Amino acid sequence: MSQQPPPSDPSDQPEPGDAFDDIVEEETTRDPDLAVIEAGSRTLRAQAGPPQADPVPARPADPEVDKALREVEQELATRWGETKLEPSVQRIAALMDVLGEPQRAYPSIHITGTNGKTSTARMIEALLAAFDLRTGRYTSPHVQTITERISLDGAPITAERFIETYHDIKPYVEMVDAAQEYRLSFFEVLTGMAYAAFADAPVDVAVVEVGMGGSWDATNVIDASVAVITPISLDHTDRLGGTTAEIADEKSGIVKEGATVILAQQPVDAAQVVLKKAVETDATVAREGLEFGVTAREVAVGGQLLTLRGLGGEYEEIFLPLYGAHQAHNAAVALAAVEAFFGIGAQHARPLDVDTVRRAFASVASPGRLEVVRRSPTVVLDAAHNPAGALAAAEGIQEAFDFSRLVGVVGASGDKDVRGLLEAFEPIFAEVVVTANSTHRAMDPDALAAVAVEVFGEDRVVVEPRLDEALEAAITLAEEEGEYGGAGVLVTGSVITVGEARLLLRGRG
After folding, report:
1. Cα-atom radius of gyration of the chain, to the nearest Å?
2. Coil, strand, or helix at residue 109?
3. What is the DSSP letter of 170?
4. What are the start-end ranges of the E strands in 327-412?
5. Is the Cβ–Cβ distance between 190 and 149 less than 8 Å?
6. In what order do the strands lie in the sheet with 135-138?
7. Are strands 150-152 and 135-138 parallel, antiparallel or unpaired?
8. How far apart are CA 416 and CA 414, in angstroms?
9. Cβ neighbours for 174, distance < 8 A, ≥ 6 positions apart
C-alpha cells in the first residue's frame, strides 16, 4: 500500500412473445445521504476543455439568492437526516392534510427498488414529456445541488422557486411538528415541498421515487395508478430486511388497489412476494422478460441502440445515450410504465408513436451513472454503492470503453457492503485509490484501505484522504507507462463522492 502526494398510432396487437434473455438486472442509484456538497476549489490538471451542457444545476449566481438557499438548507439540516428513521407515514400524512392533500391533485407513477430508480424515473419523465404532458419528478438524494430533487418540465426547479415553496409550507410544517411526537424529518419536508410544488404548477403527472423501502416511505401517501419495482438486491438490510424477499415485502407496499405493477427482473423470492401483493390488491402485473423487455441491443457511439418490446408492440431503433446493459433494462421498464399509464395492455393494445419514443429516449441524461466528465485521460463517474450496482457498472464500463488501464477512485459510506463493492471492481481496476467524501457517513480512508488491501493486494492500493488529491493521484497512475491515450479513471462508491468529484472536475458552473 502506498501514499502519493499531491398519444399514439394504432397497429395490430403483437403475437405473444418468448421469454427474453437476461442481460443485467442491477443499476446504480444513490445513497440516502444528507449533504450540501461544497467540494474543495483545487484546480485539477485533468480539466481539458470546457464541459458540455450540464443537467445538474450550479449554485445560484445571485449572491442574495444563494444566501437564501443556504439558509433553507441550514434549516432543513437541523431535522433528522435521511438515515435516521421512525418508520411511519403518520407525520407526512398529517402534513398533507393541513396542506389540503396536494398529492391528490394529479395522477402519479411511483418507483421503488434497490437499483435503477433514478435513471428509470428520468426515462419515464422524458417519455411523458414527449407526449406533451407536464411532468413533475421527485428523486433523491441529489448529486450536487438540493434543487435537483424536485423537477418540473424535465428540469430542476429554480433556487428561487425552491426557497418560495419552502417558505410557503413552513408554517404548516411547524404546525405538524408541534402536534407530533417527532418533528418532520428532512426527507418528509422535502417530500411535502415536492407534492406542493407539483400541485401549484400544476403538473399533469408526477413521477415519484421512494427514498427508502416503500410501505412507510414518506412518498407513500400517493395513490399511484402505476407502481414500478426496479431490481431488488441487498441494501439497507438493517432497516428493510436481510433477504431479498423481506426487502421486496417492504417495497411492494407502494402497490395500491387496482394498480398496474411494472416488475423488472427480480430474484425468484422477491418476485414471489410482489406477485402475492398484487393478488391481495387486485393489481395487474407486467413482468420484464414476459410481457415486456429488451429484445435486442448493440453498443453505439455515445450509448446503445435498442429494440424494446412494450405492452403494445415492438419499438425498434431506439437510441439511448447511456452506457450499460442495465440501462437498457431500465429503458424497457420505463417504456412499459408509460404504456401502462396510457392504458396500453389494459384498455387497448396500440403501441405508442415510435418516433416520439425515439426522441424521448435520445434526450435522456442520468448524471453520475457511467457519466464521462473529462477526457485525456477519460474520467467516468458512477454512483454504485452496493455490490449489485458495482457489478453492473463494471460490466458496463468494460462493454462501452476500451481502456488499456483503468484506475479506480473509491470513497464509500461506512454502513455499506464495502468488501462486496470492491470485489466487484477488482477484475477491472489496475489500481485503486481509496479516499473519503466530506460527509460524516464517509468510511475512514485507512479502514477502507485495509479492506482494499485484502481484495486487491498491497501493491495495487493507494491512500489519499482528500478527494482532490485522490483524483490527482489516479490521473497520474492512469498516465503511467505511456498509456495516456488508452487510460481511464472511474470514480465510484457513493453519490456524495461522485457529486464532489463532479464539482472538482467540471467546476461550479
Report:
1. 22
2. strand
3. H
4. 371-374, 378-381, 405-410
5. yes
6. 155-156, 150-152, 135-138, 205-209, 108-112, 226-229, 260-263, 284-287
7. antiparallel
8. 6
9. none
Going by C-alpha positions, the residue among 361, 420, 413 that lies closest to residue 26 is 420
Q: Quick one: cell of 432?
A: 485503486
For 395, phi then psi, to 5°, come to: -65, -40
Q: 149 forms bridges with which residues in the sheet?
A: none
Question: Any idea which residue has 464541459 for its cell?
Answer: 51
CA–CA distance, 209 with 195 (Å, rounded to integer): 12
Contact 324, 396 (CB under 8 A): yes
Q: What is the DSSP pairing of strand 487-492 with strand 378-381?
A: parallel
In contact, 262 and 337? CB cutoff 8 Å: yes
DSSP tag of 143: S
205-209 and 108-112 strand pairing: parallel
Looking only at the bridges linking them, the beta strands covering 226-229 and 461-463 are unpaired
The answer to whether residues 136 and 106 touch, using CB atoms and an 8 Å cutoff, is: yes
pLDDT tens for the chain, 509 residues long, are: 554 434 333 333 333 333 333 322 332 333 333 232 222 222 232 233 333 457 788 889 999 999 999 999 999 999 988 767 778 899 999 999 999 999 999 999 999 998 899 999 999 999 999 999 999 999 998 888 999 999 999 999 999 999 999 999 999 999 999 999 999 999 999 999 999 999 999 999 999 999 988 899 999 999 999 999 999 987 655 566 678 899 999 999 999 999 999 999 999 999 999 999 999 999 999 999 999 999 999 999 999 999 999 999 999 999 999 999 999 999 999 999 999 999 998 777 789 999 999 999 999 999 999 999 998 889 999 999 899 899 999 999 999 998 999 999 999 988 888 999 999 999 999 999 999 998 888 999 999 999 999 999 999 999 999 999 999 999 999 988 554 458 899 999 999 999 999 999 976 43
* Cell 445560484, residue located: 60
Report DSSP letters for 252-283, one per residue: GGGPPTT-EEEE-S--HHHHHHHHHHHHHTT-
As a whole number of angstroms, the distance between CA 83 and CA 446 comes to 23
**Cβ contacts of 234 within 8 Å, gap of 6 or more:** 114, 242, 243, 244, 247, 386, 387, 388, 417
Sign of CA dihedral 3, 391, 494, 414: negative
Name 255's Cβ contacts closer than 8 Å, sequence gap at least 6. 227, 261, 274, 277, 278, 281, 283
List Cβ neighbours of 484 (8 Å cut-off, separation of 6 or more): 376, 377, 478
What are the beta bridge partners of residue 344?
Answer: 348
Q: How long is the chain?
A: 509
Find the angle CA(168)-CA(174)-CA(178) to the nearest 5 degrees.
160
Minimal CA–CA distance to 416: which of 391, 448, 438, 439? Answer: 448
